[in-house]
Amino acid sequence: MADTVVVVVVGAGVSGLTSALLLSKNKGYSITVVAKHMPGDYHGEYASPFAGANIVPMADEAGKRWESETWHELKRLAQEIHRRSRDLATDAGFPAQTFSSAPWYRGLFDDYRDLPPADVLDGYDSASEYTGVCINTAVYLPWLVGQLLRNGVVVKRGILADIVEAKALGHTGRPASVIVNATGLGSHKLGGVRDPALYPVRGQTVLVRNETTPMVLCSGSSDGPGEELYVMQRAGGGGTVLGGTYDVGNWDTEPDPNVASRIMARAVRARPGMAGGRGVAGLSVIRHAVGLRPARRGGVRLEREALDGATTVVHNYGHGGFGYQSSYGYAAGVVELVGEIRRQRAAKL
Ligand SMILES: Cc1cc2nc3c(=O)[nH]c(=O)nc-3n(C[C@H](O)[C@H](O)[C@H](O)COP(=O)(O)OP(=O)(O)OC[C@H]3O[C@@H](n4cnc5c(N)ncnc54)[C@H](O)[C@@H]3O)c2cc1C
Ligand SMILES: *[C@@H]1O[C@H](CO)[C@@H](O)[C@H](O)[C@H]1NC(C)=O
Ligand SMILES: CC(=O)N[C@H]1CO[C@H](CO)[C@@H](O)[C@@H]1O
Question: Is the whole-model pTM more than 0.90?
Answer without folding.
Answer: yes
